[in-house]
Amino acid sequence: MDMEKNVILVTGGSGLVGKGIQMVIKSDMREAEEWIFLTSKDANLLNKKETFDVFDKYKPTHVIHLAAIVGGLYAHIGANCEFFRKNMQMNDNILEACHKTKVKKLVSCLSTCIFPNKTSYPIDE
């Protein structure tokens, strides 16, 4: 029996969660899976055409959307509406591309600033 290959596209592949997923995948790679970890160098996901070009190139069956416009706590305080709108635009482009290319599953995990302003280091997660 020939198993269908799952192509899992991970946006935000160079971020904290993306790198964590890469570490897990290295220790538990499955034969019927191909993992693609995108970074901002691969495509501007704010641009609908570039987003669709990535989907045409890799033909993902599953997408884990982690990419976001980030800038740290103070950047977000000063431009929270702009960060929100750009991240919503990026998410909308991903959602539309998933829908039009019949991606089986999409998981979106969006966070623009995950660490508190005042804490002791190292952070205990």
Order of helices and strands: EHEHEHHE
Helix content: 40-55%
- Our Rg estimate from Cα atoms comes to 16 Å
- Number of separate strands: 4
| Shape call | flat
Largest sheet: 4 strands, parallel
Q: Please, what is the average pLDDT?
A: 88
Amino-to-carboxy terminus distance: 42 Å
The stretches of 5 or more residues where confidence is low (pLDDT under 50) are none
How many helices? 4
How would you classify the helix and strand content by structural class?
alpha/beta
Q: Taking strands numbered 1, 2, ... along the chain, how are they ordered across the largest sheet?
A: 2-1-3-4
Amount of beta strand: 15-25%
Describe the structure.
The chain is α/β, with parallel strands linked by helices and 125 residues long. The chain is built from four helices and four strands, in the order βαβαβααβ. It has a four-stranded parallel beta sheet with strand order 2-1-3-4, with helices on both faces. Helix 2 crosses helix 4. The chain is flat, with a radius of gyration of 16 Å. The mean pLDDT is 88.
Topology:
Elements: E1 6-11, H1 16-27, E2 33-37, H2 48-58, E3 62-65, H3 73-78, H4 80-100, E4 105-108
Parallel strand pairs: 1-2, 1-3, 3-4
